[in-house]
Amino acid sequence: MSDAWTFVCAAGDLLPGEMKVAFDETTGAAIVVFNLDGDLYALEDLCSHEAFELSSGAYDPAAATIECVLHGAKFDIRDGRALCAPAYAPVAKFPVKLEHGGVWTRDDRD
Asked: What does DSSP say about strands 74-76 and 93-94: parallel, antiparallel, or unpaired?
């Protein structure tokens, strides 16, 4: 597990309804960070159904979901759980914080 936080962007560069992708500096994992009405959430940028980046899909802030463009699997951005087939497994959820005017995240898996 990494204790190093990865800078995503300046806080003002991730507005409500937007998402940004960063790569964990230690593990190299792609992480997509969402701004949902001022609350920040981070998921692995990888569909659990088929290894494809979620950030290519549609983020729906009203439903708090991201839909994989490849096969239509949807995930709750708040906890990573799969909401419909063809995905059944959740997507990894990561911590995210606001600090020193920036948005930060990290891959905290063992």
From this structure: unpaired
Residues whose CB falls within 8 Å of the CB of residue 21, separated by 6 or more in sequence, listed in order: 30, 31, 32, 33, 45, 53, 55
- Domain containing 72 — which CATH number? 2.102.10.10
Alpha helix ranges (H) inside 7-110: none
Task: Answer whether residue 88 is part of any domain.
Answer: yes
Domain limits for position 69? 6-105
Backbone angles phi, psi at 8, to 5 degrees: -95, -55
Q: Encoding tokens for residue 42?
A: 């981070």
35-45 per-position pLDDT tens digit: 999 999 999 99
